[in-house]
């Protein structure tokens, strides 16, 4: 979340997409003083390829007002006080306002000040790849939890009813939300204001259920996924996201591989996986009490809760199953 007073219980589609509450910044602008243009160019060089467009605007007193609504996120290469004073009167609605993230000239700190879950946290995370420390103040990030907006991003979906996320993200913080339920239509659904509805951004595809040994490398994940897709007669474009168990969600090689393929990563708790155990025996059940992560996560996260491909092992390091 951002430092907005009513945003303290929510997490991080385009910010201005017509039916999206906006979890992702796609078009950003760096606002910089003339003397800081070299740093602005450095930012473009460092993270520009992660966005549909990235532009540099020279700072002047009315620059934010002049370009308000043109970008998903402003990156203010300036003191946070300047950005706050120059944009405070423009802020109207957290679902529609552009996000704002400020960063200092030395790229030491990246501070989301508004729209944390609507692009500013994302930009701060990207600036971390250039050495900046993301100073997140949103509740879910502070608690190291994945709020519903971030889950939507991982699922390549967007939040339809933004006001509901206050209640559902409180449930995330209290470990009471549980897994996202998938519902296939045609159906009519009646929900309350404490139910967050996610809508898909593209047609249904397949899920790569993935387990691994500790320390598995990025290349091993990518090779395992490619082999599994070949055997399932699927392409990379058919993949919705990667699913794994919470005990594997911080594997560096897994995160790097998912990022390289621009795939979201969804992690499922042990009790959720136990409802969807796969047909192939797994030693993890005997050793640590977890069901086989690859098959269980593929089945649990797939739209039909079915296996397209039973698990395969690669290099004795990564296991992959394909779910649909």
UniProtKB/TrEMBL annotation:
Q: Does the keyword Transmembrane helix apply?
A: no
Q: Which is a GO BP term held by this UniProt record?
A: cobalamin biosynthetic process
Alphabetical list of InterPro entries matching this protein: CbiG_hydrolase, CbiG_N, CobE/GbiG_C, CobE/GbiG_C_sf, GbiG_N_sf
What Gene Ontology molecular function terms does this protein carry?
hydrolase activity
Entry annotated with the keyword Kinase: no
Concerning Gene3D superfamilies, the annotation shows: 3.40.50.11220, CobE/GbiG C-terminal domain
Alphabetical list of Pfam families matching this protein: CbiG_C, CbiG_N
Domain Cobalamin synthesis G N-terminal stretches: 63-141
Q: Where is this region: Disordered?
A: 1-23
Q: Which keywords does UniProt give here? A: Hydrolase
Q: Which residues form the CobE/GbiG C-terminal domain?
A: 206-322
Q: Where is the composition biased (Acidic residues)?
A: 1-10
- Protein name as catalogued: Cobalt-precorrin 5A hydrolase
Question: Which species does this protein come from?
Answer: Natronoarchaeum mannanilyticum
The lineage, from the top, is: Archaea, Methanobacteriati, Methanobacteriota, Stenosarchaea group, Halobacteria
